[in-house]
Amino acid sequence: MSKIVRIKRGLDIPLLGEAEKILQTPPRATEYAVKPTDFHGLFPKMLLEEGSRVMAGTPLFFDKYNEKIIVTSPVSGTYTQLVRGPKRRIMEVRITPDAEDEYLDFGTRPLAEMSPEQITDKLLTSGLWPCIRQRPYSVIAKPGETPRDIFVSAFKTAPLSPDMDFVVNGQEAFFQKGLEALARLTPGDVHLGVDAVNTTSAAFTGAKGVKLHRFRGPHPAGNAGIQIHHIKPINKDEIVWYVEVQDVIQIGRLFEKGIYDASKVVALTGPEVVNPRYYKVNKGARVSSFMQNNIRSKEGVTPRFISGDVLSGEKIGMEGFLGFYDDQVTVIPEGDKPELLGWLIPGLNKFSVSRTFPSFLMPWKKYRLDTNIRSGERPFVITGLYEKVLPMDILPMQLIKAIMIEDIDMMEKLGIFEVAPEDFALCEYVCPSKIEMQTIVRHGLDIMQKEFA
Amino acid sequence: MKALHDIVEKLKPHFEKGGRFEKFYRSFEAFETFLFVQGNVTRRGSHIRDAMDMKRTMVHVVIALVPAMLFGMWNVGAQHDQAIGVETGWFDQFLFGLVRVLPLIVVSYVSGLAVEFLFASIRNHEVNEGFLVTGLLIPLIIPVTTPLWMVAVATVFAVIIGKEVFGGTGMNILNPALLARAFLFFAYPSYLSGEVWIDTTLQEGQQLVDGFSGATPLAMLTLGEVVNLPPPGDMFLGTIPGSIGETSTLAVLLGALILVATGVGSLRIMLSVVLGGLLMGTLFNLLAVNVYMEIPPYYHLIMGGFAFGAVFMATDPVSAAQTGTGKYVYGVLIGVITVLIRVLNPAFPEGMMLAILLMNVFAPLIDHYVVQANIRRRLRRLGRARAPIKT
Predict the structure, then answer these.
(1) Buried-most residue among A306, A396, B127, B213 (CB within 10 A)?
(2) ipTM value of the model?
(3) A120-129 pLDDT, tens per residue?
(4) Domain ranges (residues) in chain B
């Protein structure tokens, strides 16, 4: 057995509402949407007129700056509406589904007979290419580039994130097939990170053609970025790719069955969910389709719906849509109520990484955490706190400051190529000055990408 | 709570744009956020945030200062009684101290906060919480006999020159409280050295006891009067003359316990300072060419402001070194330099203030080397990755 990488620094936030391991198939959603905003840096150019018929796998739009990258429909039906946001930015491409999915056929030529270029082409035309993201910059991989390695994390550690062992159940063969397809795209290795104790599924521990790495530790141990850093860190000019488990499964289905089957298992979680469970839905499904009658309704409490986890997910409404990469929907209460002397009173229902709240005396307790920000933004004051939740050999505060002053040279020297906003999510969570670090990191990555790409 | 909140909401329009007291919006906001944690919700990034904020952090430092403050008040009375040779009981002694110390605290807070509020209004940012701590630190590190106007001048100087010219809390280079003390020390030296540590105002019929000196242990040592030194037990408890809050190592340790237990103060810095002080003290003790050097090294920890400085001053996160490794270097050097100044420089009996201020200035340099080490590790890794693979 490979040796265990122990992640010591990090934080598991004890949030209420973990999903029970029950898989349900909800009624088909009345509407689906593909959100170009899910793909950072992609500038969508529509390929269809409103009212067009689409099948699962029909191209919807492509990237203006990289025309090979196309995004396809996750279901068959009618493309009904284009929703635009401020500055006419395309926010949602809405599709009203048929009762049954019809799939576009991409052929089932055996992998062994295909060249890496042909595999790439198949991923591109089917619309599964955007599943492959790259570091540095944390954006969709560039077709034609050769990554040093490809990383897949087979466990998640973010608050209430789905159990990948449960998710892969029944999809083992597709997962393996997907790994094989990915392995053809790199001269290096496909690295699979598993939890040394909790990962038991043979689909992961017995995966073939990959390098298995065993991790143990609190969040963010499950983040691809942290695993890359501990397995084989990214140096300047190196590119690595990373793919989510369920996207590997979808890639596997593409090569096995020749179709873009966008179905995935999604965990509905959070303190405002009555019965947190797993649901089998398609990418882009309207979330209300599987939340109906399952959200607590208490007078005066507004729920916040998040596609993804509480740290890095996206705020959507009850009628919002599941994000492209997300396999979790979290519902938490809005914290829009003022609290008398809240900074002074003990606060038994508050959680804090510091020991200024009694939460450290009750490590077993789970909390109904809300979205209250607690304070206005302040300059950096407290030091040494961010390092405790970022298990990388990176100086978080110094890097953030370098980004704030847009010092490109310093950002590079301090390791910006190794990080993604999600890796700084916990730093942002613990920050007593309430500095929006994920936004800052994204800004830094954008600057670097402009400078070097 | 509802009623109180309604009152605040009712007043709010007067302070908002277009209101009668528009100019005082930032002051109003400071009081509003002081009363209520606002119902503001996250808009970008992490949807949940840790419950700790700046106010919570600062209030814990203030709580940690309370033992030293209370002991200091009592000690002011006790020292006074000793000087005039009467015994009035601990409660009367405490009252005597309270009456003398409270005005110092009030003046420090009022003058400092006035400047803070003014700058927040001019710069249009929220009032920062940093002064909640500074405002209590300043009266605790000066002699009880300091005139009130002097406290006000020093506080205003420290807040403007020490903090606001750099951009406010979080941007300052020097510890503002120590800067206030340094200002007094160099601007009004006669008020901060000599027989200033004990309130010796006499009422009718009272007179000082024979042989009263009122000198601090450090001053005695500088003069070579080792025989007059109080027993170490007294110095640890703090029943000795000195600045209001600094005398009791025990009370400071209680504060340290609160800071470390809550995770607000850096244990790393505290221990490093102590280590540095012991190191230098031991070195002198081994050389021992004069009576000052002969004292046991641990004496340095319980005399003067060593403990207070190590726990409350050196640990100020803004002016201290900000990297983990840097904190060790920073702390040890503070300890070493403090003892160095005490023993070798007869002009300054106490070295803590100057040592911390000096290291405040050097902290960015220390951090620079730690950051460079991090950068070098990354470059070496790159070098290894690029090196041709041997076959």
Answers:
(1) A306
(2) 0.92
(3) 999 999 999 9
(4) 7-35, 55-201+214-374
